[in-house]
Write a structure and sequence with these properties.
The complex is a heterodimer of chains A (98) and B (477).
Chain A (H helix, E strand, L loop, with lengths): L6 H10 L6 H18 L34 H4 L6 E2 L2 E5 L5
Antiparallel strand pairs in A: 1-2
Chain B lengths: L2 E12 L38 H13 L3 E2 L2 E2 L2 E4 L9 E4 L6 E10 L2 E14 L3 E4 L5 E5 L6 E7 L6 H18 L11 E11 L9 E6 L2 H20 L8 E5 L4 E4 L12 E2 L6 E2 L2 H9 L5 H12 L3 H8 L2 H13 L3 H19 L10 H12 L5 H14 L3 H8 L7 H14 L1 H8 L5 H12 L6 H14 L1
Parallel strand pairs in B: 12-13
Antiparallel strand pairs in B: 1-10, 1-11, 2-6, 3-16, 4-5, 4-15, 6-7, 7-10, 8-9, 11-12, 13-14
Helix pairs in contact in B: 2-3, 5-6, 7-8, 7-9, 9-10, 12-14, 12-15, 13-14, 14-15
């Protein structure tokens, strides 16, 4: 990506996020996002050649658990937040990869 | 024109943990839909994934066995895409810091060893399963599989034929089974394989345009699909066309690869570090401990079978292809020391019975000791080899021990010379013509007469003694 987002790039990002934007939205977000980028670009002035890329902001490592089975949710509860269900499954628009 | 095929494989294996990679839900296969899910694997807001230490250990173990460098520092990343099998709209995977990289696997190709490079092996979570309702305009989603730990093993594009890809896959499966890190069951989806395949003119050094082949649900399908796809690409080029970079699905009914119609955008996964997970620092001491605990590799075991048991190369490679089979053989050969005889029975009769029942060696009810006992009965002359084959099938079916079957069915070999002599005399008197043939020099006639004795004794006559008696009597008169 360049340091300036074109309306096409804004539309592309919106499409990846499954957002529908009107032309007015596109120009609004283009200027908004470019404004944010301009602000953040300040960081480019720092010399980070000797700095290791940060993977996590908190200095933690190896936070893990042992391989033990815990109880899962009852299936009624699993499906309680949706009205789109069928045979204990979540119902979604037809997806078929052919 | 001569073309060369270039293949690289991406293999996904379920790691053998009892719980999922980031939550405590069970990984057991075949449970009713959505009964092994929780807020974490359903991607509810505000939950925190916590890695399963065993999944990391199994990944390290596999990486070591594949000769990989194990990263000191590794981390998880989000791979973003919308698809209903992924409730968070991203998959937790690894992008630029995989657990293992730069390994290799030796495969047997036409009697020599070829080394296939392993680019990387990384941990990720599996996605849910989509079920298409026939005739309806909707699909169902079962998230039981979502969050099952996967290790993705990516090879270099080092394979030059569908046969080599098949050999690589078989070798990899054997290694994973030896390590006991995965069940490797392609039917249950615990081992899945996608291929990148392209062709180029022989001698060319740059790669051609590749296609990705998916939906190969068995080892045989991999071989067939890649053979088909290579042939298809040759035809396209020969016809003056161009290969289109695309994903193609293997259709086992049509035996063709078909371009995938997908509404997905050009894949742009926007990987970024997973902020919910702390980085992994793989302690060198721990890695060395795991290295020290690695079992003998299938190739080492093959070598040992050649040296220790004096088996032919073919036997050694068949027996060691599956850990269970090699274990069965060794256990049996420990009791019955005629290793070649054991090998013949294991590779022949045992594998045949298992195949006929669609069983693998793990599900074999027959124990190595039972086969050893049967072989001992042959050596002692209690039964003939021919009868032993019948007894073996019976052992498989009835779970009874050999001596019991032999006793019940009255199959004990007749080695009593006076008893056999009576039958031999009878056969000689009944078959004057054949006897005449034999005496006029037709050696083959003898085996007919032996067969007759066998028929009279329902196969129980000791063939050595029958042969001896017949030859003696035919010469005398």
């Amino acid at each position: 990506m360049s340091d300036h987002f074109s309306p096409e790039e804004i539309k592309y990002i919106a499409r990846l996020a499954r957002l529908t934007l009107s032309d007015a939205d596109v120009s609004y977000f283009a200027s908004d996002i470019n404004e944010i980028l301009r602000y953040v670009r300040k960081l480019n002035e720092l010399d980070t050649d000797e700095v290791e890329p940060l993977a996590h902001i908190i200095p933690l490592k190896n936070v893990w658990r042992e391989d033990e089975v815990k109880e899962s949710l009852p299936v009624d509860e699993v499906l309680s937040n949706t009205k789109y269900k069928r045979n204990s499954m979540f119902k979604v628009p037809r997806v078929i990869e052919e | 024109m001569d073309y060369e095929v270039v293949i690289g494989l991406e293999v996904h294996v379920h790691l053998k943990t009892v719980s999922k990679i980031f939550c405590g839900c069970s990984t057991k296969f075949g449970a009713p839909p959505n009964t092994q899910v929780c807020p974490v694997c359903l991607g509810f807001p505000g939950v925190l994934p916590v890695p399963n230490r065993l999944a990391v250990e199994l990944a390290v173990k596999t990486g070591l066995m594949l000769g990989c460098e194990i990263a000191e520092k590794s981390k998880f990343d989000r791979k973003n895409y919308f698809y209903p099998d992924l409730p968070k709209a991203y998959q937790i995977s690894q992008y630029d810091m995989p657990i293992a990289k730069n390994g290799r696997v030796g495969i047997a190709v036409e009697g020599s060893t070829k080394v296939i490079g392993i680019t990387r092996a990384h941990l990720e979570e599996d996605a849910g399963k989509l079920v298409h309702y026939e005739g309806a305009n909707e699909s169902g989603v079962d998230y039981n599989r979502c969050g099952v730990p996967l290790l993705e093993i990516v090879s270099e594009p080092d394979m030059r034929s569908a046969e080599e890809a098949f050999a690589y896959l078989k070798t990899l499966k054997a290694i994973l089974e030896y390590l006991e890190v995965s069940d490797c069951n392609m039917e249950e989806g615990s081992l899945r394989c996608d291929a990148n395949i392209s062709i180029r003119r022989k001698g060319e050094t740059s790669f051609g345009v590749k296609t990705e082949v998916k939906n190969m649900n068995s080892f045989k399908a991999v071989r067939k699909a890649l053979t088909y796809e290579a042939g298809r690409q040759v035809k396209v080029l020969e016809g003056g066309g161009e290969i289109v970079q695309e994903t193609r699905l293997w259709n086992p009914d049509l035996e063709k690869t078909i371009p995938m119609r997908s509404k997905e955008e050009a894949h742009d996964y926007r990987y970024f570090p997973e902020p919910d997970l702390a980085p992994l620092v793989l302690d060198r001491e721990w890695v060395e401990e795991i290295r020290a605990s690695l079992p003998e590799s299938p190739r080492d075991r093959t070598e040992r079978f050649l040296a220790e048991y004096g088996l032919p190369e073919y036997d050694a490679s068949v027996l060691t292809a599956e850990r269970g089979l090699a274990d069965f053989f060794e256990e049996c050969a420990r009791i019955h020391t005629d290793a070649k005889a054991v090998s013949n029975w294991v590779m022949g009769d045992l594998l045949r019975e298992l195949n006929e029942r669609g069983l693998d060696i793990g599900a074999c009810s027959l124990k190595p000791g039972a086969l050893a006992e049967l072989l001992k009965l042959i050596d002692e002359g209690t039964i003939s080899t021919k009868i032993a084959k019948e007894v073996f099938v019976e052992m498989f079916e009835s779970w009874k021990a050999a001596p019991e079957i032999i006793r019940e069915k009255g199959l004990v070999q007749i080695s009593d010379e006076s008893e056999l002599e009576k039958i031999v005399d009878k056969v000689i008197s009944e078959n004057e013509k054949t006897v005449g043939d034999y005496r006029s020099g037709k050696g083959k006639a003898l085996s007919f007469l032996v067969g007759q004795v066998m028929r009279h004794t329902r196969g129980k006559a000791n063939p050595k003694i029958v042969n001896k008696l017949l030859s003696k009597k035919l010469k005398q008169e």
